[in-house]
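Hi everyone,

Forwarding the result from last night's run.
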Amino acid sequence: MLLGFKTELKLNKAQRTALMKHCGVARHAWNWGLNLTKQILDHNARHPDSKIKFPTAIDLHKWLVALVKSENEWYYECSKSTPQQALMALRESWKRCFNKTAGVPKFKKKGKRDFFTLEGSLKIKGSNKIQVPVIGVLKTYERLPQVLTKSCTISRQADRWFISFRFEVEAAVSANSDVVGVDLGVKTLATLSTGVVVDGAKSYKKYEAKLSRMQWLNRHKVVGSANWKKAQLKIARLHRKIANIRKDTLHKLTTLVAKNHGTVVIEDLNVSGMLANHKLAKTIADMGFYEFRRQLTYKCELYSSKLVVVDRWFPSSKTCSNCGTKKETLTLKQRVFECDHCGFVIDRDLNAAINLSLYASDS
């Protein structure tokens, strides 16, 4: 299976400038291609009798070389694969839009989600050096896996730069055969059927007041000024810190669950629908339910565990894990489950986790 590796780069001033140039080329190619494809779609909508064929990524790149690259010499200062990969990503974005799995692609703005992809002769030299096209040798803070890779993505978060690439790994052989149910919640991140309770990081809640204060102080600064840039950098650093704390908690939890159990059972949560509840949306987003499932999916494959996703309508919370009797109503405020049939009393989340594990055992 393919496994991703991402690490921070140790850069000098010249290298940072080169990376920003590559980001600019990728952003310009994306915006140019998006503008052109939107014009083609508008033309086809207005003139159904004389439609223009929607261009492929190769067509877009040919037009870019002929029309844009020749008039903008700064394109030649960067790797030729940078605009190619940006146009390929644009074509994939349109494909998802046409398949109605994503929205219409948006124009990119300088300084927001800066990244670019390089393809070609990439070589890992030593333990912490990687050679990439045009830019040269880049140093990293941690050891790199000694593998072969054909492409990499370099991205910026606040004032730090990261490089990521994928490589082939063999799935580990697991001897575990036990079943564990995992119930996600807003009070605690996860409750396992074994009785283990994992609290969420709640990093946004912890730093919400500080973030609000920093944004409030930045409200009257002139956009583009030196003080505005300093304030924006501080805000971006805090956002990065909040996200990293959340990711760290989720990585530790998903690794613990996938590595130490043969079968993992979770619910198919409607996260987008849950976020529509304005009273719980902030807490749900702070827990990171979608990221939990994404990480658990590939880690179960990595550690040869089986992931079972139960239908979202399965009444895991309303069903008694002792006798199997289903309650008619169970409000969110009721944190303790009391069975009216057998008198069994248990924590609500633990009861749901046990029912999930029993679902996989019975099936």
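The two ends are 27 Å apart (CA to CA).

Cheers,
N.
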